[in-house]
C-alpha cells in the first residue's frame, strides 16, 4: 500500500488535527502547521502494549526530534519529527482523551 492510499489524519481525527494546527500556530510554527493537512494516518503504533502513538509515517520512520504542544501550561501532545524537522512522524496525545476506534490497536 502506498502512502496516498492511507487516509489523511485530518479526515480520521479532524478535531485533533485542528488542535495541532492551532497549537503550532500559537507557538509560531507556521511551517509545521502547514504540513498537518497532508499527513497520512498509518494506524496506531504497535511497538508495545502501552504505546499510544498515532503513526503519520510508515513504521520504522525516523523520529529524531520532539515538539511539545501545550495548552494552559500543560503538555497535551507530543509530535515526533523527522530528522529535517519538517514533517511529523508520530503524534502522541497525553491528556487521556478518547480518540475513538481508529486510535485503538486491534486485539
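^ C-alpha cells above, recovered residues below v
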Amino acid at each position: 500500500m502506498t502512502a496516498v492510499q492511507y487516509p489523511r489524519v485530518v479526515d480520521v481525527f479532524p478535531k485533533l488535527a485542528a488542535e495541532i494546527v492551532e497549537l503550532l500556530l500559537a507557538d509560531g510554527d507556521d511551517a509545521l502547521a502547514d504540513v498537518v493537512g497532508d499527513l497520512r494516518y498509518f494506524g496506531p503504533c504497535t511497538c508495545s502494549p502501552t504505546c499510544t502513538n498515532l503513526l503519520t509515517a510508515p513504521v520504522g520512520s525516523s523520529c529524531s526530534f520532539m515538539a511539545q504542544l501545550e495548552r494552559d501550561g500543560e503538555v497535551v501532545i507530543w509530535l515526533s519529527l523527522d530528522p529535517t524537522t519538517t514533517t511529523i512522524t508520530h503524534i502522541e496525545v497525553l491528556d487521556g482523551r478518547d480518540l475513538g476506534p481508529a486510535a485503538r490497536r486491534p486485539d
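The mean pLDDT is 90.
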